[in-house]
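User: I'm curious whether this sequence folds into something compact or stays loose and floppy. Could you predict its structure so I can see for myself?
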Amino acid sequence: MAHTFIVKLEAMSFHTRVGALPHEAEIAQSLEVDVSAWVSRNEGARGSDGILDYRELYDLVSDVVSAGHILYLEDLVSRVADQALEIDGVTRVAVTARKPHVALPGPLAYAQVTLDRARDD
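Assistant: Here's the prediction. I'll summarize afterward.
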């Protein structure tokens, strides 16, 4: 019998170039990312079998965020989800990216995009 654990890394903070406006390609801005990974582990597994190393998940997000200018939050969450699903044992992932400083004419806490994807999607 398999157990499914949900591993969450929430509010990872980065400073990166993200956005479709010309200045967003040049000037880094704050970005937050949350990742939830569903990890399957067989009953009786020993040691690290079926265990997700938080560092691997964090490094994956950091690498995607720091790879260069990203036009859309949708692209960012899709890249993170694709790579997270390549990790052994990860069967599903939900990725959220938030931009707290969005130039809109009224009050706004942040703009946010979430992608929820399973390995078989």
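Summary: The longest strand covers residues 2-16. Helices lie at 22-26, 54-65, 73-84.
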